[in-house]
Design brief:
The termini are far apart. The protein has 355 residues and is of the alpha+beta class. The chain is rod-shaped, with a radius of gyration of 38 Å. Helices cover 21% and strands 28% of the residues. The longest helix has 35 residues, at 225-259. Strand 11 and strand 12 (136-139) form a beta hairpin. Residues 121-226 form the Legume lectin domain. Keywords: Lectin, Membrane, Signal, Transmembrane, Transmembrane helix. It holds the Pfam family Lectin_legB. Belongs to the leguminous lectin family.
Length: 355
């Protein structure tokens, strides 16, 4: 997506301001005043191509190093900015304002290709997606290559899916209403990935032109740090879940083993046999070893099945959800195996490995 600006009176001086800026969900902002007397780049700004820093962001080749024709450069915020809240997926909204200037060393010569996030020829302000043909444009009545300081404001409403661009010259910055040049309805997520780069680029082509960014502020509803925080929260929850599952399994195993322990409290092969017997009865009866909601005589599984065994009525304990659709002899055998493995006297339990 690109937003273009350029003059018309003297020559075609396009200014492309490609905004890949997202408007997120937790307050996030930065402000840079690039006019401080220093040639040290401020932290958080990355440079590519011929772009460099010298008391301002300069997007064309340093004129002290040679001709500035056929020059390209980019400067951008060093962290990607999300276009949506990483959890709710709510689209981001943002406002960015910046001051810039374009100057031709020789006013009588042809102008360069302008300043932008991505390039766009022509004397207009426009919005471009994936190409140099603008989706929306507005004419600018004067030249933009005379070195005057221009102030631009770009605002995107993620809920309304509306992009507005405002531009002014002089000391006054454009406001959100009276100085708006164009509106464009667009869902940026249809054209851009979840996270985007935010910055400026410029090119000169065969003509010389100087491009400077003097001031830049950006405010969004989603903080890029949130994506990292969400990732750590998800990983933490997954780790916690694994720990809880592990603890639950350990507790379950210990409870089963405890049910068949000797009086000295040590687990044994007999206790494992007891646990197997209880599991067999659970399968046959379709219930847990203890059911607090049952009547007292049925609350504990093993004593209840033993009682039915003594009454020669084992099948009354069969899982009622089977509705009698089972082999009665096989069901009785399963219950009897379970009972003998869970015999109250561990000396009478069927030990594993013995017939």
């Amino acid at each position: 997506m690109g937003i273009f600006a350029g003059g018309t009176a003297v020559a075609a001086v396009p200014i492309l301001i490609l905004l890949l800026l997202p408007h997120p969900v937790a307050p996030f902002s930065f402000t840079y005043n690039f006019t401080s007397p220093s040639d040290t780049p401020p932290p958080g700004i990355a440079f590519q191509g011929d772009a460099f820093y010298n008391k301002a962001i300069r997007l064309a080749r340093d004129e002290r190093l040679g001709p500035i024709t056929s020059s390209t450069g980019r400067a951008f915020y060093s962290r990607a900015v999300p276009l949506a809240d990483p959890v709710s997926r709510r689209p981001a909204s943002f406002v960015t304002a910046f001051a810039f200037s374009i100057a031709a060393p020789d006013p009588a010569s042809a102008s360069g290709d302008g300043l932008a996030f991505f390039l766009s020829p022509g004397d207009h302000v426009g919005v471009d997606f994936g190409g140099i043909v603008s989706s929306a444009t507005a004419d600018w009545p004067t030249s933009m290559k005379d070195g005057r300081t221009a102030h631009a404001r770009v605002e995107y409403d993620g809920s309304a899916k509306n992009l507005t661009v405002a531009l002014s010259y002089g000391s006054a910055r454009p406001n959100a209403t009276g100085d708006v040049l164009l509106w464009y309805a667009v869902d940026l997520r249809d054209h851009l990935p979840d996270s985007v780069a935010v910055g400026f680029s410029a090119a000169t082509g065969e003509a010389a032109e100087l491009h400077q960014v003097l001031y830049w502020e950006f405010t969004s509803t989603v903080d890029p740090k949130e994506e990292t925080v969400v990732l750590w929260v998800v990983l933490g929850l997954c780790a916690l879940l694994l720990v809880l599952v592990g603890v639950g399994i350990l507790w379950f195993v210990r409870q089963w083993r405890k049910a068949g322990q000797f009086d000295d409290g040590k687990a044994s092969r007999e206790s494992d046999v007891y646990s197997f017997g209880v599991v067999a009865l659970e399968i046959a009866c379709g219930r847990r070893p203890a059911e607090l909601n049952e009547e007292p005589s049925k609350a504990r599984l093993v004593p209840w099945v033993w009682e039915l065994y003594g009454k020669n009525a084992l099948l009354e304990a069969a899982d009622w959800r089977l509705k009698g659709q089972f082999d009665e002899k096989q069901m009785e055998r399963l219950m009897i195996v379970g009972l003998w493995c869970a015999h109250p006297d561990y000396a009478h339990r069927q030990a594993s490995g013995r017939p």
